[in-house]
Amino acid sequence: MTDIYEKIEQYSDCCFGLDAIEAEKKQLIDSVIPPEIKDKLAEIDAEFAQKSESIQAKKTELEAEIKAEVLEAGRSVKGTYHTFVWSKPRVSWDTKALEAYALAHPVIMGFRTEGAPSVSVRKA
Questions:
Q1: What Rg, from alpha-carbon coordinates, does the chain have?
Q2: How many CB atoms lie within 10 A of CB 69?
Q3: Rounded distance, CA 67 to CA 85, Å?
Q4: Is the pTM of this model over 0.85?
């Protein structure tokens, strides 16, 4: 049986392999595009970056305004293509203090639930 550290290394190798394939693909695409077309593509990228810049700024401004209004309204608001979802505030408790309190008052342990653990993948 492969231990977990070996599996993690194999997982990393898969990630690096995919990155290498993508880099090779990009290199091959770049090798078939003549310099004058690359220059033209760069000009097109620059032109569209300018066009999208003002729209991106307006989008960011609207998002902040809408979020503020949704927070004030205290409810989700649905548009045709986007919904701004209001979520109730999260409640948290001082677990260490409650566990200490439970030693003297074990009845409160009946109100305790514990969810399942989860795993996420992050780059180290």
A1: 26
A2: 11
A3: 9
A4: no
